[in-house]
Amino acid sequence: MAEGSGSLYDPRRHVRILSERVRDVSSVDYPGHFPGEDHSWDLAKFTENFHLEVQRLSQRSVEFDLVGVDASIANAFRRIMIAEVPTVAIESVYAWDNTSIIVDEVLSQRIGLIPIHVDPRRIDVKSEGDESTDRNTLVFNLDVRCSRNTKAKRGATADSELYINHEVLSSHLQWVPQGEQAEVFEADPPRATNPNIVLAKLRPGQAVKMELHAVRGVGKDHAKFSPVATASYRLLPLVVLNPDKPVPKESAEKFAACFAPGVIHVDKRSGKVRVEEKNLRKDTVSREVLRHPEFEGCVELKRIRDFFLFHVESESAYPPEDLLPEAIQILRGKIAAIRQATEALLDEDQTMDSQDAMQTD
Amino acid sequence: METPTEEEWAQINKPNWRGLGLTDPVKSVEDKWLLLPAFLKTKGLVKQHIDSFNFFVNTDIKNIVKANNKVTSDIDPKFWLKYTDINIGFPDRNESGISQKRLTPNECRLRDITYSAPIVVTIQYTRGKNIIKRTANIGRMPIMLRSSKCYLTGRSEDELASMKECPLDPGGYFVVKGTEKVILVQEQLSKNRIIVETDTTKGIVQASCTSSTHGGLKSKTYVVTKKGKIYLRHNSCHEDIPIAIALKALGVQSDKEILLLTAGTTDSYKDAFATNLEEAAKLAVYTRQQALDYIGVRVKINRRVIGPRRPAWEEALEALSTIILAHVPVNGLDFRGKAIFVAMMTRRVLMAMDDEKMVDDRDYVGNKRLELAGQLLALLFEDLFKTYNTNLKSSIDKVLKKPSRTTEFDAHNTLLFNGDILTSGFVRAISTGNWSLKRFKMERAGVTHVLSRLSFISALGMMTRISSQFEKTRKVSGPRALQPSQWGMLCPSDTPEGEACGLVKNLALMTHITTDVEEEPIVRLAFMLGIEDISQATGAEIYGPNTFVVNVNGTIVGLTRHAPRFVAQFRRMRRASRVSEFVSVYTNHHHKAIHIASDGGRICRPMIIVDKGRPRVTAQHVALLRKGSMSFDDFLKKGLVEYLDVNEENDSYIALYEDSIVPLTTHLEIEPFTILGAVAGLIPYPHHNQSPRNTYQCAMGKQAIGAIGYNQFNRIDTLLYLSVYPQQPMVKTKTIELVGYDKLPAGQNATVAVMSYSGYDIEDALILNKASLDRGYGRCQVLRKNATLIRKYPNGTYDRLADAPKDEYTGQTQKKYDIVQLDGLAGVGERVDPGDVYVNKQSPTNANDNTFNGQAASVPFKNAPLTYKSPVAGNIDQILITDTENDQTLIKVLIRQTRRPELGDKFSSRHGQKGVCGLIVNQEDMPFNDQGIVPDTIMNPHGFPSRMTVGKMIELLAGKAGVLSGKLQYGTAFGGSKVEDMSRILIENGFSYSGKDMLTSGITGEPMEAYVYFGPIYYQKLKHMVMDKMHARARGPRATLTRQPTEGRSREGGLRLGEMERDCLIGYGATQLLLERLMISSDKFEVNACQECGLMGYNGWCSYCKSSKKVASLTIPYAAKLLFQELMAMNVVPRLVLDDA
């Protein structure tokens, strides 16, 4: 385990947190960096170091540890989750009637941003110039008309009492199955993930009537296709106390207050401080401790370079735990594409070589 | 520092002043700033305009009519017509047979009509032998919004909403022909006051006084030195009059008295003045009669009525009593008051000659008066009313001249049909801004301006603007410099850059401008308080020790020997509301004078009165104020606060904070941040910024795109910029809340990372996050009005709207008519592509033919459609069909574009830090912090060191703390949330105290080596957008005359290779490039030049030589050919001599 080593500074594994700067941010475990050391990739070593553990899982978010990979790999997952995992979102809006205060373009933009609960794997990508078919387009209707609530109590002031449909909500989206869609999506009909998003406010007499076409897309084209609210990681913090310079007893509480609650344990009787290893991940690395001169030299702050604490919030049809596998799939697809291209290139080279050889002959 | 021992503590804690120890906190009146919202509630930000207009409409206009109330006839001496009263009604529709008479300002804006009310006079006149009393409507006057004659005044928010009016709109402007017009505040030198100046290079000392009486002429009188002697100078005299002669003419005959009145008993003054007495003796002027004769021959006579020539002395008397120093009253032939005034001017000159420090500063704000809408309208009205009456008189004369009339003459009819001099005069003056009143020798242009509705703040800023009368070209720094006396009155930050710098100013938050207060009661009060009449006093008394001269509005009225007591008593009367709160009184110790001022246009502001070291406003008062049981006026009435004008302010001892009150303190400031105006008040932590940055922000805040009013969707303006998602700033100021900027904001709280990124952020460029833009950051709408009139022509024809024309054969309509519906108008909500027709108007072909032929229906029509010209598609937002005042149908089409920020769009923070978008980056490439927060904007840190906008850094810190604690923070000037508290909140929430976060690069995934300053800053999107500016041309239109490419983006013009660029090419020797740029790509032209005569021919024929023998063809710029022909037209023959033809 990487945690709790208690060892002193190891520039090969640690990112050093100083009061005004960060040091040793880049990994060094690659071939040729240290003379006489072999750092070539080794499956056995990788499997030994690699570790993936889900820390917390809820309906909307997941926190997991990814240990033993390079920052570039972890970052690739993060980037793919934000920008390349496909989702379905509304792309075209056909407005028949919109007398709300919000104008067509803005309402359309707001509608586009509604996360839609539909498995994107069941929808084809609609490329430019493609006809809309039941395979690549979902159709929704939005038909809301506001009216006065005749049964409202006298003296009522709340909009919800006075009017019927005083808000256009994401739950007003009505899926209109096309072709075979009724069967395909029978089990889990497409709808908005969150039914309470306010799209516009209405007053009696105002109405919104629109036809909405949803297609599959990726987050790099538009943020509405991004499946995550946030996908990010941080490195595991490490607090190392200097055994040669213990924290002064009288300021032990102050020392503990410099960290997130629970990170530092203060012994009530002796006033000695110790790092609570299991709570280290709670620390926010506020560097507060480095600000106080009395703690100078008592402690070193570090982060472990290959210990990524991921936090992913899903805001789409994907359950949060599915996002990483999905990202891995996409990354593998990319690798496959590169491998194919490389092999094709190699083949070409070989044929070229042979051609060259033939010519020289 | 060592900790004090117990005894020391005890010593320090010992009560030593009013039961308080040294370490006890001074019990201060907390929240005394609450007086400010109370003040703004009663006075409002633009109250000066409204007060001034109200004063004019309710009081001043009656005085004007009273002064010109009689119309008589030269023909019938028995006839007279008298105005007994005048009243302005409420704005109404000037149409008959209408049930809803009430006219709302918004209807006027939409229908291009004037928000005006009838002027109703009560008249008495003779009809035959009877005297008849009636009322009559003599015209219409534009009404200032939210004045006492406006429907909007005192309405609740609901009522305003039903009138489609914004409750936050300040009012104070006019709606004339549909446009909102502001009469800017004009700054002028004060009238009827003596100003002493020196010209050190010429050694001249002069005292001048501009006299201005109500409705009278303005004239300037000088007392100047010339070669050590003193003269009286006035426009009405050919030459300067020796002062002794002038005084003799004014009735001070004896030299002894002259000396006493001018030099008094001071020896040095006496010595300096003596030569003037010799001068009079040399000119053999000893008596008053001689003096009058002397002056009489030197007075310019402009007599209209030809009559017997008056003797010179009469002319002199006339001039002295009515023209010279006209504001000093002369009762009958008692010139004593005027004599003393002239003597006083002379004495001031003598004082300045003796001590060069005894001069006045014309830039001192106390010597300035602000002229507001009311005063300007009063002048205009007086002029128009006089014209009206002369016209009325002549038309009455015309009728009365007729020997026999069938009916008895009734002047009422004449009055009604006497044209619309008043109506059109007002409308013309306000809509053009030209105040040309010959009668008052006034010729001013640019008095009114169109109210800028770019943003709420720009409109508000315009209402507080003051323009100076100084010319912009003069290279003097005095009037432009910041004056110490403008503290608290005029905003030190809000002034434009460039030529109008320092000349255009803005009012501070608490400033009020006075209106005229009647003078007589004040004079009476002064006498009751024991002053002695000046005309009874001799020079020895006036200049005696402990004697102070009492002036009321510049005229000397009396003396007092107990100046401090008099001033204190006068103030007590004012604080007890026995005189108007806007009357000021102050002592000038240099001149030994007490000045009481009640004239209009003085700048003043309220202050808390301090008595015996204690402010009169106590915590209890503030509590009552908070509860709402006391208003600002109650504070005034109770004598807790009072208004001080600049002169009185500078005679007071004002404590900035309560803990700095000393026994001599007379007043306490209400709040220090009120020295800033409404626009500068938006800046958070302005006291931490370099001063010019605040000035830059004041200019830029007016260009920010935001919300402009609650009624913004009910307006059809020529050009309107709106933000889609405006946010109130995280870091507010008290001013923001007071002016309502939090309800009508212009900007968004962007999460900013202060770091360098990609090199596309150099020179203040900003990096924007693409995902933020997708989600709506910086999105704005541009609404543009396109209007057309459906005219009726005098020949009986009319314009018409037609549906889209169908092709004769196919039956299809052209694509550009796609959105035109059957009524000839585009449907609301339709997308308009470039080139589309949205109003298919057709005009008759003979519209300009004025002969009526009765066949209007059969006239052929030609197309005159409105086509959409912008390069980017828009949507039809609104279409308005209405009619104007003269029954023309008016169609207004509002076309909307919704824009998302793009490369090159301009943004700015609230600290004068503007920048354009340099790069739009995908979210995954942006850096992120431990929480996964990605910035909306990346700002380059190089923007900080040279700009020194520390306020921006603190704004970020406070904003971040506010976000974390879920509270809005305050960045109010000289106060606001403290950095220390902000840092504490950050630490409590697990952030670094410094506001710097550890970021991870979105590209490499590795942590960044530096901590990055990271948090929300309020960013404004400015109206300068690339879409409105981008321009390029390969080929295109050319000007007809020169055949060169046209100029300017609007005409799809070329980009000029100017002289300096040309010089570079010449220097480099790129001849072919020069030829190509300046001729081939511009206006090349083939000419035929005859080698025989050197003139130009055509088609290979020289029409001069009548031959084609030696005609050569060559290419020259068309402009050159044009020049040759123009030279020939003025008889200069240019000949083309070719080397190698």
Automatic annotation (TrEMBL), chain A:
Keyword Nucleus: yes
Single GO MF annotation: protein dimerization activity
SUPFAM superfamilies (alphabetical): Insert subdomain of RNA polymerase alpha subunit, RBP11-like subunits of RNA polymerase
Main location: nucleus
GO CC, any one term: RNA polymerase I complex
Domain DNA-directed RNA polymerase RpoA/D/Rpb3-type: 61-341
Keywords: DNA-directed RNA polymerase, Nucleus, Transcription
Cross-referenced CDD domains: RNAP_I_II_AC40
Keyword Protein biosynthesis: no
Subcellular location: Nucleus
GO BP annotations, alphabetical order: DNA-templated transcription
Pfam families: RNA_pol_A_bac (PF01000), RNA_pol_L (PF01193)
Database matches in InterPro entries: DNA-dir_RNA_pol_30-40kDasu_CS, DNA-dir_RNA_pol_insert, DNA-dir_RNA_pol_RpoA/D/Rpb3, RBP11-like, RNAP_Rpo3/Rpb3/RPAC1, RNAPI/III_AC40, RNApol_insert_sf, Rpo3/RPB3_RNA_Pol_subunit
Family according to the record: Belongs to the archaeal Rpo3/eukaryotic RPB3 RNA polymerase subunit family.
Database matches in PANTHER family: DNA-DIRECTED RNA POLYMERASE, DNA-DIRECTED RNA POLYMERASES I AND III SUBUNIT RPAC1
The protein, known as: DNA-directed RNA polymerases I and III subunit RPAC1
Organism whose genome encodes this protein: Pterulicium gracile
TrEMBL record, chain B:
Superkingdom of the organism of origin: Eukaryota
Gene3D superfamilies: 2.40.50.150, 3.90.1070.20, 3.90.1100.10, DNA-directed RNA polymerase, subunit 2, domain 6 (2.40.270.10), RNA polymerase alpha subunit dimerisation domain (3.90.1800.10), RNA polymerase Rpb2, domain 2 (3.90.1110.10)
Gene Ontology CC annotations of this record: DNA-directed RNA polymerase complex; nucleus
Coiled coil: none
CDD domains attached to this UniProt entry: RNA_pol_B_RPB2
GO molecular function term, any single one: DNA binding
GO biological process, one term: termination of RNA polymerase III transcription
Localization terms from the record: Nucleus
Enzyme class of the recorded protein, top EC level: transferase
The protein's name: DNA-directed RNA polymerase subunit beta
Species: Pterulicium gracile
Upper taxonomic lineage: Eukaryota, Fungi, Dikarya, Basidiomycota, Agaricomycotina
